[in-house]
Amino acid sequence: MVKDNDTVIREFNELVNMTAEELTEWLKGDPSTSSGWTKDDGSGESVGHESGRKIVEILKKNPNKDPEKYDQDDIDHMRKVVAYNKRHLAQEETAKQNTESKSYKSLKNWGHDAQKP
9-18, pLDDT tens digit by residue? Predict the structure, then answer.
């Protein structure tokens, strides 16, 4: 069953625990660019890195997290972010314990810092 938009928005805002500024800084570094699956468009960018850039756009566009200010493209990407973060947080305890793990780095690309309370 597909989650309704209100649920997706709420879960996105709970799971994405990095600010636009924190995520922007993270995305500039080598750990970010070297983790995750590489897109097959020849760009060399990982899927998660691209997602992180989209998350930054969403966060900057709507800093007050007003549900009425998200468009359908935002919500579609938010749905992917929620699914990715929930799946990986449920599967990978390593991300919560080891900041050098691929899991930790990949989750950060998707806007979730597993070391934050």
Answer: 999 999 999 9
